[in-house]
Amino acid sequence: MTGEQSVGGLRAMLDDVPGKAEAAVAWHVPAAASDPQRGTERRTILTTANHPRDQRGTTMATIHRKRMTADIEGDFVVFLIGMRINRPWKPWKWLPVFTAMPRMLGELRNRPEMGLLEARLAFFSPLSPVVIQYWRSFEQLEAFARSKDATHFPAWVKFNKRVGSNGDVGIWHETYLVPAGSYECIYNNMPRVGLAVAGEHIPVTAKKETAPERLGRE
Hints:
This protein has helices spanning 3-14, 36-39, 91-110, 138-146, 152-162, 195-198, 211-214, and strands at 64-71, 76-85, 116-125, 128-135, 169-178, 187-190, 200-203. By secondary structure, the protein is α+β, with helices and mostly antiparallel strands. It has one domain: Alpha-Beta Plaits, CATH 3.30.70. The chain has a 4-stranded antiparallel sheet with strand order 3-4-2-5. Strands 6-1-7 form a 3-stranded antiparallel sheet. Strand 3 and strand 4 (128-135) form a beta hairpin. Helix 3 packs antiparallel against helix 5 (152-162). The model is unreliable at 1-8 and 13-59 (pLDDT under 50).
């Protein structure tokens, strides 16, 4: 199933909930106003309003027709967080979980000092959205999760009261602490995505042609 089909399926479910379908377009963090260079290629996954279009009306992104990689200074964190709608016929259970994420990402977008570098929506299935996040440090991620003044903590408390472990909605996360230089990536004929948005998007050089070379193992 394609990403467009996944989005379409989720939108179809949201159509029955007045005023809530707009939440489906907000599961991505656009660039902060203070970062106009990165902002040229940070696009919202679920809406095409900001994309240029070709003569046929097809949405477009800036494709870099060469081998590119990414560079990010120091340690960083990759954080995956997702949900699974186990009982789609209970929107009063899963919709609050689904709509909580755009509010969190909006807060993090407006407060770059909290440490989020980039976030992007993907789908494991039409009922399983996941957000891939890149953080500057685990300490900043943990501080956001535990802060009673931020949007995550009250949403987590509400989830435990409304759903808990009753099986209606699944939630999960995975955290990866990446030491400086302990990563490699390659992008060819691709727009700027993932780590290339969180860090610097750079051309592959002669000394960085292979994965071992990019990891400093050759």
